[in-house]
C-alpha cells in the first residue's frame, strides 16, 4: 500500500533536496502556534463578534482575526492567539498572510491607482488592462481556453459560465454566430417566455457546491441549509460516486460504482432532451463543500466525453481546487484529457483572489453587453493575482506542494492509523496537500475541530462528518510535524 511505503521514501527525498522554507519568503512567520486564552475564540474575539452582531449576523463567525499581526501560515486572532492555519480562509489564501513581496506590490503606483479608482471594466478598462492580463492570469490559462472574463467571486464566475454556455448553445442551434434574433425572441424574453427564454438546463452532481446566487445555487447540491426557502430552477442532478477506502483494497467495487454513476448520468442527459436540454454540465474536480469527495481521472474524462457526445458544454469549477493545492496548477490537469477534450469553461476564484472564467473563443457571445456588469472583476485583484502567480513560479511552489503532499500523506496515515475507531476514509489526490478524512459522527468531528483550535491549529469541516485540509502553497514539512502532533493529541482526548 502507498501509505506503508511512503514515509521512508518521503523522508529520503526530504533529506536529499534543498527544501523550500516559507520563512525564506516570509521571514517573520512564527515558528509555532501559541495559544494564550483558555479557549479559542477568546474574550476579545467574542466581544468583537458581539459588536458586529449589532449590524450583521455573527452566527457563522469562527473568530475575529488581527490580520495586521498574521504572517505566513499563521493567523493571529483578536486575543493574540497564533494559530497554524490549514484552512486558509476556506481555501482562499494562496501563499500566506502579509507576504513581504505582496506588501511591496501594494505600494506601487499601479496598485494604488487601481485600488482608489475602481473602473467599470467592461466600458472603461485601464490602458494597461491587456498587458496585466497577458502577463498574469493568461500565463496560467488552461490549455485551449484562450479567452477570459473576470468577475467578482466564485459564484458569479459560475453564473458567467452558465450564461455563456446558454448563449453559445442557442447560437449553435441558430447555425451561425452571425445569426440575429427574431422579433418573437426579443419580445418573449421580456416576459420570461419562450422562445426568447429557452427551456435549457445545467446538470450538476449530488454533493456539488457552485455558489449561492440564483443560478449557481440551483446547481448547488451540498447542504439543504444553503437552498431552503429559495426558488430554484428545476435542473437535473446526477449521482456522484461514493468511493470506498482505502482505494487499493476496493478497486473493483469503486469501478462498478463509477460505472453506475456514469450510466445514470448519460440517461439523464438523454432524457432531458425532451423537456429542457442540458446546455452545460458543471463539476468540481473534488466535491469540496460537499465532503471532499473524489473520483478517478477516468471517471472525469468520461464525464467530459459524454457531455460532448450529447452537445452539452463542460464547465470545470476550479474555484476551490485551482492554483496548485492539488499538485498541478489546475486539478483537472490530472484527468488525462487529450487535445480536443479540454473543458469549454474553467471557473476560478479563492486562491487566485481575482475571479473569472477561462473559455474557448467560440463561446464568446455574439453581441456586446450579454456577459457584462459594472465591475467585471477588480484590477487591484488582477494585479494581486499576477504577483502571486510570479511568486508561485519563482519559488516552484506547485512542486513544493507535491513534495509536501507526500510528507503530509505519510504523517496523516501514521496518526490516523492509530485512531481507526474514530476516524476513517483518509483521502486526497496523490502528491497534494488538499486532503480530508471523516469522523464516525458529526459531533465527534465538531469536537475535534474545537480541540485543534485550542491547540493552536485552525481547521475546517465539510460535508456531514469530514475535516478538510486547505493549507497554503508555502505550507511545508515543519508545519506538517506541528499539525500531526496536534491531530494526535486531539484525537487522544476525544
TrEMBL record:
<dbReference type="GO" id="GO:0005739">
    <property type="term" value="C:mitochondrion"/>
</dbReference>
<dbReference type="Pfam" id="PF00202">
    <property type="entry name" value="Aminotran_3"/>
</dbReference>
<dbReference type="InterPro" id="IPR005814">
    <property type="entry name" value="Aminotrans_3"/>
</dbReference>
<keyword id="KW-0808">Transferase</keyword>
<dbReference type="InterPro" id="IPR015422">
    <property type="entry name" value="PyrdxlP-dep_Trfase_small"/>
</dbReference>
<dbReference type="GO" id="GO:0009450">
    <property type="term" value="P:gamma-aminobutyric acid catabolic process"/>
</dbReference>
<comment type="similarity">
    <text>Belongs to the class-III pyridoxal-phosphate-dependent aminotransferase family.</text>
</comment>
<dbReference type="InterPro" id="IPR004631">
    <property type="entry name" value="4NH2But_aminotransferase_euk"/>
</dbReference>
<dbReference type="GO" id="GO:0034386">
    <property type="term" value="F:4-aminobutyrate:2-oxoglutarate transaminase activity"/>
</dbReference>
<protein>
    <recommendedName>
        <fullName>4-aminobutyrate aminotransferase</fullName>
        <ecNumber>2.6.1.19</ecNumber>
    </recommendedName>
</protein>
<dbReference type="InterPro" id="IPR015424">
    <property type="entry name" value="PyrdxlP-dep_Trfase"/>
</dbReference>
<dbReference type="GO" id="GO:0030170">
    <property type="term" value="F:pyridoxal phosphate binding"/>
</dbReference>
<keyword id="KW-0663">Pyridoxal phosphate</keyword>
<dbReference type="InterPro" id="IPR015421">
    <property type="entry name" value="PyrdxlP-dep_Trfase_major"/>
</dbReference>
<keyword id="KW-0032">Aminotransferase</keyword>
